[in-house]
Amino acid sequence: MPEEPADPDQVKSAPEPRQNIAKGAEQKTPKPEPKKVSDVLQSVHIALDGYDDIFSDFDPSPYETRILSDDFLNELHKHYMETPKGAFTITFTLPHAFRSEKKENLIKKRIKDYFKGRIKDLDKSMKDRLNRGGIRAFIGVVISLGMLLAPLDWRTFIAALISPLVWYLMWTGFEAIFDVSSKLRKKKAFLDKFLKADYVFRDQESVVGEALASSESSYR
Prior knowledge:
Blueprint: H1 8-13, H2 15-28, H3 37-41, E1 43-47, H4 70-82, E2 89-94, H5 101-146, H6 152-195, E3 198-203, H7 204-219
Parallel strand pairs: 1-2, 2-3
Helix pairs in contact: 5-6
């Protein structure tokens, strides 16, 4: 049988709904907000083969007590030295098949507890060093003033005898107060930065897909 001719009105009106849908989709799709330069700089991405990469290979303990890996801590320190200002977001990526929400929550807590413990130890160390430095400097000053009470005939002899001790006490005391405490404060700034950091786990597949999509769009 010969085919019936198509209705001209139907042929003309067919593509119109598609155009309307496309226009509506374009109007409803929100434009992505541009990323700030600071957001890119402060985002740290660490690719993992598994959760064990965060912990030491020499410690077979469970994640609740296992020591963090030196390589992992060195990586954080390297990023801190490159961008010490602003907040950090640490993003771990690993295959979806290996992910466990329970383990990830435990690992986040372990990382936070590590930096919290280090800060506590550092505060105690800073306090002890400041106390020792203050005591040494104080003793040096007291001895120096005490020489003024010695008889004039003996003062020169006593000064020559104890001057090295006074110099040592005052030098090491003020060094502990100013120099050592300054180094410890810088170390504390690093620990405090990663205590307050946000730790996120993502599927490796989705991150790779986003990277490929971004690279393809850049070539268009």
